[in-house]
């Protein structure tokens, strides 16, 4: 092991606050002994703060309409090849009921940025789903503060809004018409409104460096997030980045493991993108710091059209298939399914 890596890992093991340099050292873990040591520490911190429970969050991808132009995303408004769909409110609630019956403690409502669903419409959907006794996570992008407030009032517990990259220049290049400052302002509003906040970033974007990824983790620490989604870049042929190489799976594992050390109390999903790049991707992520999986609850006939990136897994499966597949996966790892809503892991403040 190189001395700088070993020193940073030791600081992590001692629970010291990691510097940007430390984080870069850990992200640069070499194949072999360094990676093994990083993963072992991440897994032990995961066991200590999150236990052996793996929480399942059922995701309903209720609309693939999107008004944005993110250069990596297959849902971008400019992608004319995509067959667009919207679930009606009663169908969203029915899918959520299915999720509650399958035992999911959290329902995630995810879509492109689709203003067709007005603030009051989504509030009504949230109220109906909350009657099922589940936690509700929203993932519908940038909206007004009033809408965020209305949804919180309606019972939404959590909000996922990935910052995508902490490098403001890269952010500007990848998100025409959007601004990094506005993104952060939205995250600030969500925090003020009492949501459990999730953010996260893409790994292996063209032009992204290890220092950028360290800045991602530092930003997540500053935001004090309750959850962080960290997934590899997967090129989509119908986007401007279609010809770029995919993000590295190994780098993704190193980011997830390092995230467990930088933001130990955050829920970290083994992402669908990791599962798309490798059939054992999610299992390995769960053994390297992750503690959450997000099974698909979208009605099967729409799944193929929620093509954020190509070859997404579970496109031909139904909600029950994913439920059973994941129970088997979790058991095979010697872990167990989470019970209850799986709220924040952060320790309660001392009174
Ligand atoms: N590769 C990997 N992740 C992507 N996302 C969108 N497009 C891609 C892609 N091509 C991620 C973004 C977004 C989430 C819904 O999916 O992080 O926030
Ligand atoms: Fe969908 Fe395995 S998670 S089939």
TrEMBL record:
Q: Which CDD domains match?
A: Radical_SAM
Q: Where is the Radical SAM core domain?
A: 52-266
A Pfam family for this UniProt protein? Radical_SAM
Q: Does the keyword Chaperone apply?
A: no
Give the source species.
Neomoorella stamsii
The residues that the entry says bind [4Fe-4S] cluster are 66, 70, 73
Q: Which Gene3D superfamilies does this UniProt record tie to the protein? A: Aldolase class I
Q: What is this protein called?
A: Biotin synthase
Cofactors: [4Fe-4S] cluster; [2Fe-2S] cluster
Q: What is its EC number?
A: 2.8.1.6
For this protein, the record's InterPro entries field holds: Aldolase_TIM, BATS_dom, Elp3/MiaA/NifB-like_rSAM, FeFe-hyd_HydE_rSAM, HydE/PylB-like, rSAM, rSAM_sf
**Annotated GO biological process:** sulfur compound biosynthetic process; water-soluble vitamin biosynthetic process
Binding residues annotated for S-adenosyl-L-methionine, in chain numbering:
164, 183
Molecular function (GO) terms for this protein are: 4 iron, 4 sulfur cluster binding; biotin synthase activity; metal ion binding
Would you say which domain of life the source belongs to?
Answer: Bacteria
Iron found in the keyword field: yes
Keywords on this record? 4Fe-4S, Iron, Iron-sulfur, Metal-binding, S-adenosyl-L-methionine, Transferase
Q: How is the cofactor bound?
A: Binds 1 [4Fe-4S] cluster. The cluster is coordinated with 3 cysteines and an exchangeable S-adenosyl-L-methionine.
């Amino acid at each position: 092991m190189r001395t700088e890596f070993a020193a940073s890992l030791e600081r992590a093991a001692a629970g010291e606050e990691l510097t940007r340099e430390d984080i870069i050292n850990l992200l640069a873990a070499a194949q072999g002994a360094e990676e093994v040591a990083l993963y072992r520490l991440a897994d032990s911190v995961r066991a200590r703060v999150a236990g052996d429970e793996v929480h399942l969050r059922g995701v309903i991808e209720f609309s693939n309409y999107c008004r944005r132009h993110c250069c990596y995303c297959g849902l971008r408004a400019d992608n004319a090849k995509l067959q667009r769909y919207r679930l009606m409110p009663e169908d969203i609630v029915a899918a959520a009921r299915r999720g509650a019956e399958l035992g999911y403690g959290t329902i995630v409502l995810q879509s492109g940025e689709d203003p067709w669903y007005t603030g009051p419409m989504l509030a009504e959907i949230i109220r109906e789903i909350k009657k099922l006794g589940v936690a509700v996570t929203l993932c519908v992008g940038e909206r007004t503060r009033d809408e965020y407030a209305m949804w919180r009032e309606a019972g939404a517990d959590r909000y996922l809004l990935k910052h995508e990259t902490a490098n403001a220049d890269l952010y500007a290049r990848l998100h025409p018409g959007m601004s990094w400052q506005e993104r952060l302002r939205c995250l600030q509003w969500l925090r003020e409104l009492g949501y459990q906040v999730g953010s996260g970033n893409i790994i292996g974007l063209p032009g992204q460096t290890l220092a950028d990824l360290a800045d991602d983790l530092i930003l997540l620490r500053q935001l004090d997030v309750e959850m962080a989604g960290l997934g590899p870049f997967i090129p989509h042929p119908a986007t401007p980045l279609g010809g770029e190489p995919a993000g590295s799976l190994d780098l993704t594992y190193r980011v997830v493991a390092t995230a467990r050390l930088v933001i130990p109390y955050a829920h970290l999903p083994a992402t669908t993108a990791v599962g798309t790049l490798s059939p054992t991707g999610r299992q390995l992520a769960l053994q390297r710091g992750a503690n959450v999986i997000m099974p698909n609850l979208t009605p099967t006939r729409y799944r193929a059209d929620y093509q954020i990136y190509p070859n997404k897994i579970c496109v031909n499966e139904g909600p029950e298939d994913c439920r059973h597949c994941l129970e088997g996966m979790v058991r095979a790892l010697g872990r167990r399914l989470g019970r209850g809503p799986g709220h924040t892991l952060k320790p309660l403040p001392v009174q």
